């Protein structure tokens, strides 16, 4: 959205002087508009990893990384997690406001109505190798939706509401089917008498010999965990969704790309790697102090998974909620997980260590979510899929905002070229190895 300037900065490069407007967002963050910089001065900005680059203005999510604040459309994430179901938050993100009781009931009905996937698509699952990672299947299936529902991939405005609802509904079915495939069990179809999260848990855990596979605390935990993941402004995967969408690619293609970006261990894939790290520490009986020492060693590639964040320089508010939730689910199940003990020990040791203090490294959302999923019986390779189901409304909201923004242009960063200068091709017989 075009912003109103509140001041001006001057950039001086050699003989060029450029006046750049300064904007301020609704929570006070300031940005210099350098969009004319290259044209006027012949110079570009250099910002690997986009540490200082604002790629858009957005009215969806606000984060204050110093104070540990996260809000979706003005609502604090803790408030939403305490008082809403996931589908209300999905509605809030994709449609702009929380639903009334009547809107929620209609939306829930629509999500049920579109929860099946085409039978031919179900066939796909049987052709994946036995131990395929569910994130690979998820991303391939989502982009395949544009073949099965081509009329909905055209970005026509009147169809978009339906495309969005279908996608939110079907992603959870695809996710559960991919899990069933991986354990060699028949797919369980969605049911109209279950709500969104119950339906997902039922498709995951019921089988011809096992009915009623979930407890109220599992449903509550699923709702809360999906809400914690629902959006996080211009993170790696959301930026990918926007970049792909900016080329005019359809929603399914853009979301499929976002799923691939999320998969990486430095992003959503970290939840899986946290558990692998904890299992390894437990199995080897490694001392927590040794793990911390390895994480601090600059010669060692190991990092404490689930720690640190590009934006949060204080405790990630989602990690706090996830930690409490994890303790609650374990208490409700009346079990004990030694991995939770190790995680809490690691957290205490890291937070007391100057290395982590000086770099403002705190647990991020992924540190405790995996432990909660594990307690719920969700297998490790499905953790990032859970993250994707939660993040979907956020990706969609970012994509819709991009489409409606008059300032949107194709995402196309510049570079500083460092390769060879111009040269000519030698005849092949003269070339040396
Ligand atoms: N363990 C040990 N040291 C760390 C860690 C960690 N988890 N995270 C950052 N550091 C150190 C870095 O080595 C660096 O130290 P230096 O200044 O001495 O070189 C310093 O802290 C800054 O780290 P950067 O990598 O520059 O920070 P960046 O913002 O680029 O990376 C990231 C953020 C990728 C999340 C990083 O903290 C990390 O790798 N964490 C572990 C993976 C993880 O948990 N990812 C999930 C993030 S949340 C999400 O995406 C949903």
Set out the fold topology:
Layout: E1 5-13, E2 16-24, E3 30-32, H1 37-41, E4 61-64, E5 69-72, E6 75-76, H2 77-83, H3 86-95, H4 101-113, H5 119-126, H6 134-148, H7 157-182, H8 196-205, H9 216-228, H10 236-246, H11 251-263, H12 270-284, H13 288-296, H14 317-333, H15 338-351, H16 354-358, H17 366-376, H18 383-404
Antiparallel strand pairs: 1-2, 2-3, 4-5, 5-6
Helix pairs in contact: 2-9, 3-9, 3-18, 4-7, 6-7, 6-11, 7-8, 7-18, 9-14, 9-18, 10-11, 10-18, 11-18, 12-15, 12-17, 13-15, 14-17
Bound molecules: acetyl coenzyme *A.
Characteristic key phrases:
mainly alpha; Rubrerythrin, domain 2; Cytochrome p450-Terp, domain 2; 3 domains; three-stranded antiparallel beta sheet; 6 strands; binds acetyl coenzyme *A
């Amino acid at each position: 959205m075009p912003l109103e300037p509140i001041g001006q900065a001057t950039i001086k490069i050699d003989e060029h002087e450029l006046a750049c407007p300064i904007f301020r967002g609704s929570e006070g963050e300031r940005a210099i508009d350098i969009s004319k910089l290259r044209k006027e001065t012949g110079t570009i900005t250099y910002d690997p990893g986009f540490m200082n680059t604002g790629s858009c203005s957005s009215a969806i999510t606000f984060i204050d990384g110093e104070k540990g604040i996260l809000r979706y459309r003005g609502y604090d994430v803790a408030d939403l997690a305490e008082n809403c179901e996931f589908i209300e938050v999905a509605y809030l993100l994709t449609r702009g406001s929380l639903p009334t009781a009547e809107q929620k009931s209609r939306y829930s009905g629509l999500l049920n109505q579109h929860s099946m996937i085409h039978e031919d698509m179900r066939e796909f699952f049987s052709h994946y190798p036995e131990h395929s990672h569910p994130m690979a299947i998820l991303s391939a299936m989502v982009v395949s939706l544009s073949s099965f529902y081509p009329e909905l991939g055209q970005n026509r405005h009147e169809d978009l509401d339906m495309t969005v609802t279908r996608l939110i509904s079907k992603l959870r079915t695809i996710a559960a089917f991919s899990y069933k495939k991986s354990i060699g069990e028949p797919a369980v179809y969605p049911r109209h008498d279950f709500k969104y999260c119950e339906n997902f848990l039922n498709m995951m855990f019921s089988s011809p010999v096992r009915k009623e596979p979930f407890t109220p605390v599992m449903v509550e935990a699923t709702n809360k965990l999906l809400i914690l993941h629902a959006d996080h402004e211009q993170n790696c995967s959301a930026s990918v969704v926007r970049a792909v969408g900016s080329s005019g690619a359809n929603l399914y293609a853009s979301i499929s790309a976002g799923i691939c970006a999320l998969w990486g261990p430095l992003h959503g894939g970290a939840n899986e790697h946290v558990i692998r790290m904890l299992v390894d520490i437990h199995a080897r009986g490694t001392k927590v102090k040794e793990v911390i020492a390895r994480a601090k060693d600059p010669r060692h590639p190991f990092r404490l998974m689930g720690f640190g964040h590009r934006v949060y320089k204080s405790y990630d508010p989602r990690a706090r909620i996830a930690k409490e939730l994890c303790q609650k689910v374990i208490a409700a199940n009346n079990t004990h997980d030694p991995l939770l003990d190790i995680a809490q020990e690691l957290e205490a040791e890291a937070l007391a260590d100057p290395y982590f203090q000086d770099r403002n490294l705190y647990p991020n959302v992924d540190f405790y979510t995996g432990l909660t999923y594990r307690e719920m019986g969700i297998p490790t390779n499905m953790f990032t899929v859970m993250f994707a189901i939660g993040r979907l409304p956020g990706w969609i909201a970012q994509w819709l905002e991009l489409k409606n923004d008059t300032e949107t242009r194709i995402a196309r960063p510049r570079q500083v070229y460092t390769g060879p200068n111009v040269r000519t091709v030698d005849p092949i017989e003269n070339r040396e190895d």
